[in-house]
Design goal:
It contains 17 helices and 24 strands. By secondary structure, the protein is an alpha/beta fold. A hairpin with a 7-residue loop joins strand 7 and strand 8. The protein is globular. It binds adenosine monophosphate.
């Protein structure tokens, strides 16, 4: 059997059924999906692509981007999607690390990316502008054959690299295989009871596992349909919910929707399932949503390296404040973080995961890969939690110093590096504190030797970093709190500034 994910996801769907609908480009059937993804595969092959080559994509969300993703699978390429907010400086790192043969970018970024890509030896830089504005790759696809054989793959072959990071240094590429993605898509389809009749309202980005490998792959696995929105927007959600049967979002989406009185039982009645993931969902949000809409939110837990690991049940009790139980075939244990010895029910420790969903390692970083796997094959997630007597997993915190703001991960070390590079800065500490809109607000405490304003620090960071990584507030101090070993005590800072954003509800803008 061909282990290529495309064959497994798309081969059996009814060609006449709709795959996607998006504003401005009508309905796309499964027959059209097959034809268009073949055209993209042919366009990539014409550019000299060979199986295993990376295709790095930083493009706006569109159905065309999904067709490109499927075209990459069919041609045997490794799809490397990147956050559209990344600056050129950030892209330079990713291009250097992934060494793609082809870079696909939005037409408006071509001039800025070309010199960087040339310097780093990229063979082709082509553009994709979404449904309305075309792009050079879309034009090549237009001329290509609408038929192509799908490259034969082993399920252990790479399908995608998703960049993610821990506390150490720059982002690492999590290598996901055709088998990893297939097992998760079909596991979730069964767990969440997706059928060809489902319509998923899609407001998530396509560069993250949630929007791409969870939302799109599960939809494909079921032969179901997507209702594609360019981004989260309360008015658009309210307008489109009546045509949907499933909604998938990050907790910030649900907080936002709860602020709108139009969101009620009547509006949400056609929807059979609301799913939340990517960041902790407050038990209060779960309860408020149930009271307002009559729907019990289904919370699940996953990460770039593994896809989804655990889910609250479709049929059984969805327990607020928990992320449910392991998916079939996935083993989750909680261990002593230092020794790796499994802990009994109720004890807090390191969450470790093993199963066919777990990634193949970090791209060209064998040392990092080795450091994050136990000898018996469990992946050390970096999240701390406990498993209760009923087998439900509770996440209590992250051992990584990651901040999750509006569903996006922000790695403090990266932001600190940019702050410390500003003339006059001695040192800095970046951490997250509760934020009513974003879950966590990125916050910086800076020690400076010359007078600096918070505004000027933020303005300089915006030149270097994607907006969601920039601190919402910059505070100044004469020194950072440190422990006896000289380590900055971020827990002290988090406590000190815990209430910083309590007045900010509704004031911030959402970037996911
Ligand atoms: P990413 O690799 O961007 O998907 O981020 C993965 C991280 O998001 C995990 O390691 C968790 O720390 C966090 N995460 C994902 N889902 C949940 C959840 N339901 N509750 C709490 N944290 C979550």
């Amino acid at each position: 059997m061909n282990g290529n994910l495309y064959e497994r996801l798309c081969a059996q769907a009814d060609a006449a059924r709709p795959f996607a609908r998006q504003a401005g480009s009508g309905l796309i059937s499964y027959a059209a999906l097959r034809a268009r993804s073949a055209q993209y595969a042919n366009a990539l092959l014409d550019l000299g692509l060979t199986p295993g080559d990376r295709v790095l994509v930083q493009a706006d969300k569109s159905a065309e981007m999904i067709m490109l993703y499927l075209g990459c699978l069919r041609a045997g390429a490794v799809f490397v999607p990147l956050n559209t907010a990344y600056t050129i400086a950030e892209l330079e790192y990713y291009i250097g690390d992934a060494q793609p043969r082809i870079v696909v970018c939005a037409p408006g970024r071509l001039a800025a990316i070309l010199p960087v890509a040339r310097k780093l030896g990229v063979a082709h830089v082509v553009t994709l502008g979404g449904a309305e504005s075309g792009g050079s790759l879309a034009s090549r696809a237009d001329q290509g054959d609408a038929l192509c054989p799908t490259v034969e793959c082993d399920s252990a072959d790479l399908a995608a690299i998703i960049y993610t990071s821990g506390t150490t240094g720059r982002a690492k590429g999590a290598m996901l295989t055709h088998g990893n993605l297939a097992t998760n898509a079909f596991g979730l389809k069964a767990c969440w009871r997706f059928t060809a009749q489902d319509v998923l309202l899609h407001a998530l980005p396509l560069f993250h596992i949630h929007g791409l490998f969870v939302a799109v792959n599960v939809t494909l696995a079921a032969g179901a349909s997507l209702l594609l929105l360019p981004a989260f927007d309360t008015d658009a959600i309210v307008a489109n919910l009546p045509a949907a049967t499933v909604y998938m979002g990050v907790p910030t989406h649900y907080l936002r929707l709860l602020q709108d009185r139009r969101v009620n039982r009547e509006l949400t009645a056609p929807v059979r399932l609301f799913i939340s993931g990517s960041a902790p969902l407050l038990a209060d949000t779960h309860r408020e949503w149930l009271e307002r809409t009559g729907h019990s939110l289904l919370e699940r837990y996953g990460m770039s390296e593994t896809g989804v690991n655990t889910s609250n049940p479709y049929g059984g009790e969805r327990v607020p404040g928990t992320v449910g139980q392991p998916l079939p075939g996935v083993s989750v244990r909680v261990t002593d973080p230092d020794s790796g010895v499994p802990l009994p029910a109720g004890a807090v420790g390191m969450i470790e995961i093993k199963g066919p969903n777990v990634f193949a390692g970090y791209w060209r970083k064998p040392d990092r890969t080795q450091a994050e796997f136990r000898a018996d094959g469990y992946f050390v997630s970096g999240d701390l939690g406990l498993i209760d007597e009923r087998g439900y997993l509770h996440i209590v915190g992250r051992s990584k110093d990651l901040v999750i703001s509006g569903g996006f991960n922000v790695y403090p070390r990266e932001v600190e590096g940019e702050i410390d590079a500003i003339p006059g800065v001695v040192e800095s500490a970046v951490f997250g504190v509760p934020h009513p809109d974003f879950g966590e607000g990125v916050t910086a405490v800076v020690v400076a030797r010359v007078p600096l304003s918070a505004e000027s620090v933020i303005a300089q960071l915006k030149q270097r970093l994607a907006g969601y990584k920039c601190p919402k507030q910059v505070l100044f101090a004469s020194e950072l709190p440190r422990n006896a070993m000289g380590k900055v005590q971020k827990s002290v800072l988090r406590g000190q500034y815990a209430d910083l954003y309590q007045a900010a509800r509704g004031a911030a803008t959402l970037r996911s």
